[in-house]
Amino acid sequence: MGQTVFNIPPQHEQKIAIIGAGAMGVSIACILARLGIAHVTIFEAESKPFNSRGASINNTGILHHFVYGGHQKTLEQLFYQGILKANARICFWR
């Protein structure tokens, strides 16, 4: 415990897109924010993250699902700051 896998300093000016506002997508966004990465956007195809279910963040920054509840303020803040974009259409080209 406590050992790092990577020892690469974060590039604070990088722009990062996360596809999916499920537990992992939002967890990664929270971890990146703690590392000082300011330009993170989460794209979600559904109108609500977590498929209309809730989640809470434990002390490691990882989300745990539960029935809809107290995470609403966090999600409202993510929408307000423009970090979370609902009903997003993502296209990939080769």
UniProtKB/TrEMBL annotation:
Gene3D superfamilies the record matches: FAD/NAD(P)-binding domain
Keywords assigned: Membrane, Transmembrane, Transmembrane helix
InterPro entries to which the protein is assigned, alphabetical: FAD-dep_OxRdtase (IPR006076), FAD/NAD-bd_sf (IPR036188)
UniProt domain FAD dependent oxidoreductase: residue ranges: 15-80
Superkingdom of origin organism: Bacteria
Keyword match Magnesium: no
Listed name of the protein: tRNA 5-methylaminomethyl-2-thiouridine biosynthesis bifunctional protein MnmC
Species name: Microseira wollei NIES-4236
Taxonomic placement: Bacteria, Bacillati, Cyanobacteriota, Cyanophyceae, Oscillatoriophycideae
